[in-house]
Every structure is written in C-alpha cells, then in structure tokens.
C-alpha cells in the first residue's frame, strides 16, 4: 500500500498543505494534517475552527464532536478548536447556515471535489 506523504499534498490555494491542529491531534491519520487517502471514506479534508453553533448542529446530526471519548484518546472539541471535518458535513452545515470558518491553507485540495472554492472563500478564516 502506497502512503501519501505530507509534502505532496496541496491545499485549496494550490500551495503546500499546512498543519491544521496538533492539540488536539486532528486529521484522518491523526498527524495534524487534513490529508486523505483511500481508507478515508469520509474525506476529512476541511480544516475548520469549531463554533458552539456548529458543535450543536453536528451533534444533532448524529456526529457528537464535543463529548470526550477516552477509548479513542479523543478529548472532545470546544469552540475555538481546529478540526479536520468531512467535506460533505461542512457543506451540509453551510446549507443549514451553521458552517464554521475554514483555514484555507490547511484545507486539502480534495475538498474542491465536493465544495466550490467560492464557498470556501466566503467562509475563510482571517486572523486580521
């Protein structure tokens, strides 16, 4: 099985994929990057900054990201945490008006197969 390396991954801006978050450790491969591969059927490629509104929304959809799950070494997310979301869940939340902001530099280019770039730009995180 061929393993993707971080250096070959590009973000939605076409540049090298940046880390999303190391605390808590995010990404399908739990390496801090929103990388994807054949095993990642959920396509966890959108680096988003959690909001209380989104955490409540996704829990109501059956994906509880706020409750700790020690058996998976998962502390539970709080507003302000960065996390690699499934592109389809982010798009669903956006249609419901609940999408969190996105860190474009840490969002994998595969997100563009599911989400229009213009939509991501409308929700981009700005630290200015």
From TrEMBL:
<dbReference type="InterPro" id="IPR018714">
    <property type="entry name" value="DUF2237"/>
</dbReference>
<dbReference type="Pfam" id="PF09996">
    <property type="entry name" value="DUF2237"/>
</dbReference>
<protein>
    <recommendedName>
        <fullName>DUF2237 domain-containing protein</fullName>
    </recommendedName>
</protein>
